[in-house]
Amino acid sequence: GYGSLLAGFGLGAIAGGLVLQRIRYALGPRTLVGVGFALYGVGFAAMASAPNAAVAFLCLVPAGTGWVTLSMLNATVQLASPPSAKARVMALYQVAFLLSWSVGATLAGIIARATDERAAVRIGGLGVLAAAMFVRRMGLASKDSELVAAPIATPVPGRM
């Protein structure tokens, strides 16, 4: 059962990876990250209400597509950061990302204990969907051309 659900998620991730390059330039980073959040949230919220494993599998396909799309958020933050502050920005991004996952997992455990696992997953999916609505307020570029394109100088080996 779990392997089948993971396969649905993986199938969506593969599909997302195949089309990500093409749609990234058409939509821009901000819209693409918002769509990724929405697909992930809706997929998980729907999966929590699925009557059987086959329907849950189908719900996890768009969730997997959303997940791989969200990986672009990391790259977007790196590209949008000025070279002089890139390491600090990425450190703060990682702390915020890991903190949100830790808080989310803790809340999911509390909700699951008070109700059931399906409710915890459904509420988590709806929380991610709510986060998708806040992407418009994030400081992400709306198009790739707005990203900082300053190259980072790589030292030549032996000349350090």
Question: Can you describe this structure?
Answer:
- It is a single chain.
- By secondary structure, this protein is mostly helical.
- About 75% of the residues lie in helices and about 0% in strands.
- The chain has five helices and no strands.
- The longest helix is centred in the middle third of the chain and has 29 residues, at about 85-115.
- The model has no long low-confidence stretch (mean pLDDT about 85).
Q: Quick check: average pLDDT?
A: 84
Order of helices and strands: HHHHH
Question: What is the 3D shape?
Answer: globular
The Cα radius of gyration reads 18 Å
Taking pLDDT < 50 over at least 5 consecutive residues as the criterion, the unreliable ranges are none
Q: Total helix count?
A: 5
Distance between the termini: 54 Å
Topology diagram in text:
Elements: H1 2-27, H2 29-48, H3 53-80, H4 86-114, H5 117-134
Helix pairs in contact: 1-2, 1-3, 2-3, 2-5, 4-5
What can be said about this structure in brief?
The chain has 160 residues and is mainly α. It has helices spanning 2-27, 29-48, 53-80, 86-114, 117-134.
